[in-house]
Batch of 2 targets.
Target 1
Amino acid sequence: MKLLNTSKSFAFHFLFTALAVFSLPALAENTDSTGRLSFVFENDFFAGNDRNYTNGIKFIWIPDDATETPDWATKAASFIPWFPEDGKLRHGYAFGQSMFTPDDIKLKNPPEDDHPYAGWLYATLGIASEKNNQLDIMTFSLGVVGPAAMAEDTQKLIHELINSDDPKGWDTQLHNELGFILTHKHIWRGVQSFNLNQYELDISPYTAASIGNIHTNASLGATLRFGKNLPNDFGPPRVQPSMPNGTDFNPSSKQTNWYAFLGFEGQAVARNIFLDGNTFRDSRSVDKKPFVADIQLGVVFDWQDFRLGYTHVFRTKQFTTQKSTDGFGSITLNFAF
């Protein structure tokens, strides 16, 4: 009971701290919107699973256009050679937690060839430059893996609230390790677009690359959108290391707008700490697959200053002893603040 109370304390402290941090910019001026606040929740419950990448949450704050770009963002952009000099510069902040578990969480000592228990607690700074319907995004995430990430506390609290199985194998999780991820993503919005009666369809390809002791990989993908009055955005945000592509959006009218989307992504993986294990200490690990593919589909609803989106992800096997493919759902809430 004492451990459970401690878990509740840590988890609620994590959630309320995140809400407080991202509410501060909005509290500075209450007459007009000062930016957009997003909350992203991902869980494999939506796919009927409870394994591998099992849960992720992320709070995102993107200041409004009228907010002066801070010196750190301007200077950082000037050092990035592929950022256009006259591009529209934006910056943002994020704070999140992700957790990973093996297939059977009821085992105190799960098989060593299954996905290791792991947590990742992090903060992110990001800058983005947009010009001619192209978006360049650079983010830097810094955080911690291991017990200090408090994933055990969060999962035990959630499972108690929903009356689910108590995860018993967290003593085997990865050790504490400071980690970072530096990520770049380039998106071409609407390189192909079509009008189908009163509907629109467009295709936006993208490339991405990350380096760090948490993730080192390269990705290639594309998103296809279909709907009425497609908004001037780059798709819905995800917990994965990146700026929130859909956080800065401009609904075209005061009426309800919507679009459906379908995405494909292939990824070459050189480093994944959640599969490879700790960098400098012995820990549980599995043999990862060098190539992984995702299929994403979902729908986005806009109404005035509010957005609701759902994404369902199908993912190929990530390690050689993995029994089946993965799937999870992602819910995004976004509003002016």
Note: The helical segments are 2-27, 71-78, 151-161, 273-276.
Target 2
Amino acid sequence: MFDLPVMTKPQRKAATGFRQWLLDEGWEMSQFSVYLRWCAAKEQAESRVRAVARKVPSEGKVHVLTVTDRQFETMAVFRGRTRERRGRSAPEQLTLF
């Protein structure tokens, strides 16, 4: 989750670059400033946090929150007043094509 300043052209460029980097690294946008990424193990999650730390723009605030699969599955999500069914399983660890 992040809140990056976008008042000046360099700030907008840095914020856009950070968002694009997240997408390029396989993060999924949940909201405009909230991104998700599934990790198979705690070590992989820690590696991702270190990568984010290297890419954080010089201004603004970035929070990284780690949740377990179980916690993610029990999250309540609403679209308007309708509750969405999560039912989302972990992605395949390896895909060959």
Note: The radius of gyration is 15 Å.
